[in-house]
Amino acid sequence: MSQTLQRSEARTTAETWVSAFADALSARDVDRVVALFAEDSYWRDLVSFTWNIKTVEGREQIADLLNATLERTAPSNWEITAEPATADGVTEAWLSFETATGRGTGHVRVVDGRAWTLLTTLDELKGHEEPSGDRRPKGAEHGANPDRVTWQESREAEAKELGYTRQPEVVVIGGGQGGIALGARLRQLGVPTIIVERNEKAGDSWRRRYKSLALHDPVWYDHLPYIKFPENWPVFAPKDKIGDWLEMYTKVMELNYWGSTTAKSATFDEAAGKWKVVVDRAGSEVTLEPTHLVIALGVSGKPNVPSFPGAETFQGEQQHSSEHPGPDAYVGKKVVVIGSNNSAFDICGSLWEAGADVTMVQRSSTHVIRSEMLMEHGLKPLYSEEAVANGVDTRTADLIFASLPYKIMNQFQKPTYDTVREVDADYYDRLEKAGFDLDFGDDDSGLFMKYLRRGSGYYIDVGAGELIADGSVKLVRGQVQELAEKEVVLSDGTRLEADLVVYATGYRSMNGLAADIVGQEVADKVGKVWGLGSDTTKDPGPWEGEQRNMWKPTQQQNLWFHGGNLHQSRHYSLYLALQLKARQEGIDTPVYALQESHHRA
């Protein structure tokens, strides 16, 4: 079949479905709309219909969503925006549409005339569009004006007033990439925001980590909103380079960034609909009264430091990986690293390079994929120079990824890791012969599903895997029973001499950090943050189908969570910012299927 004929058939298929879909929505005929979906189908909505981040599965749930939202959403003006394509019996099409309050993007996969997956996203609010492109600010006031206020004077006045004589609409606790990305979105939407960060400067959370740290994700995956990394930016950015970029970004994006500021407590006044957030700003106590509070403290929360018998008698040093300064002070020392994920491997590698005697203690199985394999087989179609050349920019890549419902994402991921396992069979064989306990996830779906489900249990190998495979870094498997004066003792009796013990044992759920600020009662009301409810290892059910409590309303009014890796911080910051902007403007935002509370840690 010629490509021209294939394109023609793809367009006909897409146009037929979209036309019928638009007509049925316009007629408010829920039964007709539902009939356009396959029995096994998924509709993922990012705010546009639900004022939530929600995936509904199957016709019954789709009907429920429509019955609850269709009348007030009033969707219209559905158009195909790019040439549809068909592969393996699946026709894909990009759409644009409007609702009563905004404009959005859609993506549909049609199989045998019916929708298999549908993605709908809210891109902007009508009347509150970002001041970009044709709407960009003028920046300079032409003409003569004796009362002229310069840009610098305006910024200085804002910095002096906001939080003191004028209250912010939003306070974001956490000034890493997540808080910064959200702050930039809110700035463009005109939402007065203060970002609270305990470190002195933006980027310090990166600068303070062990010196060998670099991003394991490639540059195309890691852009921040509005400002892409330069064309000559390295594929894998070193931590200090990222730190400098974040510091620069906060300045040029004109963020109200309060460094050296610690959030001490936050209480919500139900009657007033306001938070009272007490912070210590460089030694001075300030009380902020925002309408909304956003906890933006990364993927995880507090460092998970195990409590082993005898730890108080150990005569060497003990550090969590988040506190590890790097290898320089440990040349010739015996170091035991407890853990076998990204940080453990990175720290073992840098210590070995510096001449330390390093032993890794693996307590549970770990998924490992070499960076080259992840780039070639996992990310290349969406996030690579080749993808850019093929017209897949970062936003398009983000939306393609977002269009895959989490329920079936493992089906798309598994073939990638089957290929990687075959191509890298020798590498994996050598790891296992060295005694390493290797896995590919509960269902062999690999890295990203582990990340989404539990945020742990994997290593993107940038070199240290070979040190385990060839025995340069010693490996033992087992559980730690206790610490002696100069040793780590395992449950099987193995004794490991140590001058330093590094706990590369990960982090707890983000709501543990939230509890320190908003109180345990509120944190319990919200429930666990992160995970899908997949009922796989460390991701207990029930099934939620989205990241729990992330970027969407929670059971605590006006409390939000934001974070994730750079890709998620960039992508989902838009949808959280639009939810906050809508509430600031008094737009009605009835939430469909508010996240229920499950688990407390």
TrEMBL record:
Region Disordered: start-end pairs: 126-156
UniProt GO molecular function: flavin adenine dinucleotide binding; monooxygenase activity
SUPFAM superfamilies attached to this UniProt entry: FAD/NAD(P)-binding domain (SSF51905), NTF2-like (SSF54427)
Alphabetized Pfam families for the sequence: Pyr_redox_3, SnoaL_2
Record carries keyword RNA-binding: no
Annotated SnoaL-like domain residues: 18-114
UniProt cross-references to InterPro entries, sorted A to Z: Auxin_biosynth/cation_transpt, FAD/NAD-bd_sf, NTF2-like_dom_sf, SnoaL-like
Protein name as annotated: Putative flavoprotein involved in K+ transport
Keyword Oxidoreductase on entry: yes
Keywords noted in UniProt: Oxidoreductase
UniProt biased composition (Basic and acidic residues): 126-145
